[in-house]
Amino acid sequence: MASLTTAAAGAAPITSAGNTRLGIAVLAAIALIVLLITRLKLHAFLALTVGSLALGVLAGAPLAKTMASFTAGLGATVAGVGVLIALGAILGKLLADSGGADEIVDTILARARGRAMPWAMVLIASVIGLPLFFEVGIVLLIPVVLLVAERGNYSLMRIGIPALAGLSVMHGLIPPHPGPLVAIDALHANLGVTLALGVVVAIPTVIIAGPLFSRYAARWVDVPVPEDMIVRARPSAGAEHRPRFGATVFTVLLPVALMLLKALVDIVVDDPANPVQRVADVVGSPLIALLTAVLVGMFTLGRAAGFTRARISVTVEKSFAPIAGILLIVGAGGGFKQTLI
Questions:
Q1: In angstroms, rounded to a whole number, what is the distance separating the alpha carbons of residues 122 and 101?
Q2: Which pTM was predicted?
C-alpha cells in the first residue's frame, strides 16, 4: 500500500498518509465509482475520473499532483493499448462487413449435426470472437442461435450458452481484447506467453462453461424460440460475395499465430542476438502482428468481398466509432491505477 504515495516511478511522494488512511481512501474511492455507475448512471469514464480525484483527496494528496498522476496514467495506458484495440476493431469490422463471419458460421454449421451442434456453436463463437468485440459478436450470433435452435428443435439454452461461452472466454482471456491488453500493460507481462497461457486456460473453460454446462441448463430452464425474433436472412453489409472460408480463418488466426510464434522462438532460441529471434520479435510483436493481419484482411476479406478501395476506407473509418468509449474507459482505468501507484 505504500506505493500509493508516489505519482509515478521515481517521483516524489504525493502524500504522507499512513497505510490505514490509504486503505480507507482506496475502498471509499472504489465504492464511489461503483455508486456513480450503478445508481447515478454516470458514464464509466466520468466515474473513474471522479473516483481517481476523490482517491487523491481522501489520501491527503494535493489536487494538482493527483490530477497530474491521473493524466499520466491515462496517457500511458492509451499509448500502450490504444493502437492495438484500434487495429483489432478494424479487423473485426472487415470480418463482419465482408461476410467473412457469416461464411465461418455457415460452413461450420453445414458440417455439424445432432449432438455436435453445441460444440459447433462454441467453435464458431470462439473463432469469430478472436477479433470481434463481445457486443459485435452477440449481434452476429443471435440470429444464428435462433435459427439453429428452431431448425434443429433444440432448447435455446442448449445452443445459446455455448455461443455466449465462446465469446465471453475470448473477450476475457485472449488479446487483442481490451481487458487482457490492459492487464498485460499494467503488469508488464509478455504478450506472447500470456496469449499462449490464455489459450491453454480458455480451452477447458469454454468446454465446461459451454457445451457441458448447457446440457444441464437446458434441463433446468426450457426456453422456446421466440418466433417473432427469428431473422431469416443475414445480409453482409453490401458485400457482393463472401470471402472463402479458408482465407477468412487464415486472416483471423494470423495475428494469434505470429504472436505465438514469437513466444515459441523466445523459449526455444533464448538468444536476443540470434537473427531468427530478432526477426520473430519484430514480426510477432502485437503491433506488427495485428497491423499485418489488417493489411492482409483488406485483400482476403475486403477485396474478396468485392469492396472497392473507397469502400474499404469507409469500413476502416466506421470501425473507430464503437471503440471511442472503450478507449476512454480503459484510459481512465489506467489513470485510476496510476493514482494508486
A1: 14
A2: 0.73
